């Protein structure tokens, strides 16, 4: 089966392209800052979630020089809820390196030397912002390539095979002439037509050249190796509200899980189930438990809440709307709801 036409995909893209806030309008030069920022945000995160964050960042930091001058804590606060917080820490490091150099480098090798930029992000920025003839392979492109070439090897073992197949698609003359548009066309094809479930093969511009469609296995690809079950961790967090309505928070160490983010005080994220030793005497209300899924484990947090006259030493008094990681926001909402519930009367035995 011959390769599907890059020119055909580009014609489809010019009609059906998604309008996204970080994309340059047709005929305009892409802003490398916008391309880079969006690609960092989109790692492990869907477009719909990223759009409002992107708008907030561009409003607060219109240029990469503005971002480079921002305090780390300010950037982490604006990032709160987007997850994978190492991205935010690398964001400021990379911004400062780029600002110091006077702008983004325009080669893959130099891009990859920047903090937080791996092979995929370097390829995406290189292709879209600088017109480098390379195909960035994200989940959408993996899916398209696996189906076009009917690659049945399960992921992650198939990654090299799929990347080679994607490079074959991008080696066509039309793709090399417009590598940025071709990359984004592949993204859009995977996101809107060649979707994970129930792909819309009949409206796909590459349907007639798709080996998986010809064999009626498109919806089954790419195959994925069975994942081991995530281990379960437990912990307890304490929601304390003082007389002014402030919440007691503390900042996590700069490295590791949720590094540098504000959190509710607690036992840690790997305590023994039932470890509920409170930080101060109070009428503690058990607000139930909340669950959260991280990449490598699941977490179950018991939430205890109390009204206190003053917050214990070592905690920062912050308003309840302070930006927090999603897991801490869930716990805070549960704790405040328990405190505001006139009918709640469940006391923690350790109070």
Q: What does this entry look like structurally?
A:
This protein is α+β, with helices and mostly antiparallel strands and 351 residues long. It folds into 2 domains: 6-220, Endonuclease III, domain 1 (Orthogonal Bundle), CATH 1.10.340; 232-340, Nucleoside Triphosphate Pyrophosphohydrolase (Alpha-Beta Complex), CATH 3.90.79.10. It has helices at residues 6-16, 32-42, 47-60, 64-69, 72-79, 86-101, 108-112, 119-130, 139-148, 159-170, 173-177, 179-192, 211-214, 326-340; strands spanning 232-241, 247-251, 262-263, 285-293, 298-307, 316-318. It has a 3-stranded mixed β-sheet, covered by helices on one side. Strands 3-2-6 form a 3-stranded antiparallel β-sheet, with no helix packed on it. Helix 2 crosses helix 3 (47-60), helix 8 crosses helix 12 (179-192) and helix 9 packs across helix 10 (159-170). Residues 342-351 have low confidence and may be disordered.
Task: Describe the protein's topology.
Layout: H1 6-16, H2 32-42, H3 47-60, H4 64-69, H5 72-79, H6 86-101, H7 108-112, H8 119-130, H9 139-148, H10 159-170, H11 173-177, H12 179-192, H13 211-214, E1 232-241, E2 247-251, E3 262-263, E4 285-293, E5 298-307, E6 316-318, H14 326-340
Parallel strand pairs: 1-5
Antiparallel strand pairs: 2-3, 2-6, 4-5
Helix pairs in contact: 1-12, 2-3, 2-8, 8-12, 9-10, 9-12
């Amino acid at each position: 089966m011959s390769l599907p036409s890059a020119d055909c995909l580009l014609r489809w893209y010019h009609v059906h392209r998604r309008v996204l806030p970080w994309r340059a309008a047709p005929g305009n030069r892409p802003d490398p800052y916008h391309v880079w920022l969006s690609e960092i945000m989109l790692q492990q995160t869907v477009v719909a979630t990223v759009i409002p964050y992107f708008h907030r960042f561009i409003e607060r930091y219109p240029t990469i020089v503005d971002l480079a001058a921002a305090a780390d804590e300010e950037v982490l606060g604006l990032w709160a809820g987007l997850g994978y917080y190492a991205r935010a820490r690398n964001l400021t490091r990379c911004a400062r390196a780029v600002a110091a150099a006077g702008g983004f480098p325009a080669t893959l090798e130099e891009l990859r030397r920047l903090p937080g930029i791996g092979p995929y992000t370097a390829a995406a920025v290189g292709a879209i912002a600088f017109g480098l003839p390379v195909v960035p392979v994200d989940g959408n492109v993996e899916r398209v390539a696996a189906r076009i070439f009917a690659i049945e090897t399960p992921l992650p073992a198939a990654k090299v095979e799929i990347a080679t197949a994607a490079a074959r698609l991008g080696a066509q003359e039309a793709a090399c002439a417009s590598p940025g548009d071709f990359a984004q066309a592949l993204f859009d094809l995977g996101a809107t037509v060649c979707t994970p479930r129930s792909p819309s093969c009949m409206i796909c511009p590459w349907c007639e050249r798709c080996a998986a469609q010809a064999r009626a296995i498109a919806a089954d690809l790419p195959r994925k190796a069975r994942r081991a079950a995530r281990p379960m961790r437990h912990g307890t967090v304490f929601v304390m509200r003082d007389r002014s309505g402030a919440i007691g928070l503390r900042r996590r160490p700069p490295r590791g899980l949720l590094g540098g983010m504000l959190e509710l005080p607690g036992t840690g994220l790997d305590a023994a189930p039932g470890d509920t030793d409170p930080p101060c005497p109070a009428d503690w209300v058990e607000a139930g438990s909340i669950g959260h899924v991280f990449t490598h484990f699941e977490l179950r947090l018991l939430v205890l809440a109390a009204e206190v006259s003053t917050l214990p030493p070592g905690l920062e008094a912050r308003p309840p709307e302070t930006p927090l990681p999603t897991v801490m926001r869930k716990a805070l909402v549960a704790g405040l709801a328990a405190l505001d519930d006139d009918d709640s009367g469940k006391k923690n035995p350790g109070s």
